[in-house]
Amino acid sequence: HPRLEITRRVVKDGARYFGPYANVGAAQETKKLLDRLYPLRKCKHIPKSVCLYYHMGQCLAPCEYEVDPQQYEEMSEQIARFLNGNYREVKQKLTEQMEEAAEKLEFERAKELRDQIQYIEAIMEKQKVTFSDNVDRDAWGYYADKGWMSVQVFHIRQGKMIERNVASFPYYGEEYEDFISYVAQFYFQEHMRPKEVLFPISKGTDGLEEMLGSRLLTPQRGPKKQLVDMATENARIALEEKFALMARDEARTVQAVQKLGELLGIGYPKRIEAFDNSNIQGIDPVSAMVVFTDGKPDKKEYRKYKVKTVAGPDDYATMKEVIRRRYTRVLKEGLPLPNLVVIDGGKGQIAAAVDVLENELGLYIPVCGLAKDERHRTAQLLVGDPPIPVDLKRDSNEFYLLQRIQDEVHRFAVTFHRNTRGKTMFQSRLDEIP
């Protein structure tokens, strides 16, 4: 008693296999449709009595009734024709039923039928790239420009292109060497290795064929060459789109920095330094500083501070110590001063920072604070002495910039505190004995 099922493995068991299909969801919906149209058995093990599928007209109930083998053969052939691409008859029938349901104002039924038609189109769509030899192969292409490389691979299975992968990354060596290195890593990260791998170049592939266990080809003409060319062209388009996106993001970031400066009345804050404290009930108190230049993180300028003079969970005293240590060193070593100091905190933290900068060090640097709501999310921008809220739209680019700064300094401080705490947890008083 044959049955229709979806599987991820092909074994030599005498069954008829169709696929593979890239869209698993559409395959499952199409199976449901075929189950409704062709009443093959549904149960994995034959039960003792008829089940609900029989009463729904979706099973011939071989558990109780004799079924003519010829009837099974006809249904199996119809399903095979459908899965081989001859699905227009079924699609036409569903379309007529959908239109009939719509005429009767049965819109839910019409929508269900429309979805079935779309699932059929999704799983049975004709591929632009087909091969009659049914050999599993991957076609690679790459494109490099401005220190970046884009790599694209088409996965051809049983003559049809079922999937593609694309990646963009900065490269530092020779183009083809980095490309070959990427391909080797790709296959060693548990990706299936096909029988054939098509490359745009033959240079640098020595030893790769033996390593992969696949046949490596560099086609010069024909459909395989067209496939590699298409992968290369797609890689070029993907890289150009990435450059366009990066340019747009950079313009948006610079604009956000400019608008933030206008909002605070301080000009263009090219260099922004942000501070945050981290401790658990005053234990292992630390602080961290991050630097954003032109709205982008400048990680070489990040600094960590272990709090030395404050006992207990005193956030204001901690902020004073760290601001004092940072800008005393800036003045001593002639380091660049920031155009804006961002404090992760409210009025008390801002007042502590301003007190040290102006009264102790004689520095008049604009200071703002980022207050959080009860959900620990960026809620308000405070500036001035005494600090007052600044009207800042939550969906503006400058608000997102401040949010990124606050998230980054908080991440940096918490990571440093976690590492510090991890070291002290495994210390003993015996370790302090000389």
Structural notes for this entry:
Strands 6, 7, 8, 9, 10, 11, 12 and 13 form an eight-stranded mixed beta sheet that branches. The chain is α/β, with parallel strands linked by helices. Helices cover 44% and strands 19% of the residues. The protein is elongated and about 100 Å long. The chain has eleven helices and 13 strands. Helix 8 (222-264) packs across helix 11.
Features:
44% helix; eight-stranded mixed beta sheet; 11 helices; single chain; elongated; five-stranded mixed beta sheet; alpha/beta
Q: How many strand segments?
A: 13
Low-pLDDT segments, ≥5 res? none
Query: Helices and strands: which structural class?
Result: alpha/beta
Distance between the termini: 82 Å
Put simply, the count of helices is 11
Largest beta-sheet characterization: 8 strands, mixed
Radius of gyration: 33 Å
**Coarse shape:** elongated
What is the N-to-C order of secondary-structure elements (H for helix, E for strand)?
Answer: HHHHHEEEHEHEHEEEEHEHEEEH
Share in β-strands? 15-25%
Work out the helicity level. Answer: 40-55%
- Oligomeric state of the chains in view: single chain
What order do the helices and strands come in, and which of them pair?
Layout: H1 24-37, H2 52-55, H3 69-83, H4 88-103, H5 107-124, E1 137-145, E2 148-157, E3 160-170, H6 175-188, E4 196-198, H7 208-212, E5 215-217, H8 222-264, E6 271-280, E7 283-293, E8 296-297, E9 303-306, H9 315-333, E10 340-343, H10 347-360, E11 367-372, E12 378-383, E13 388-390, H11 397-425
Parallel strand pairs: 1-4, 4-5, 6-10, 10-11
Antiparallel strand pairs: 1-2, 2-3, 6-7, 7-8, 7-9, 11-12, 12-13
Helix pairs in contact: 1-5, 4-5, 8-11, 9-10
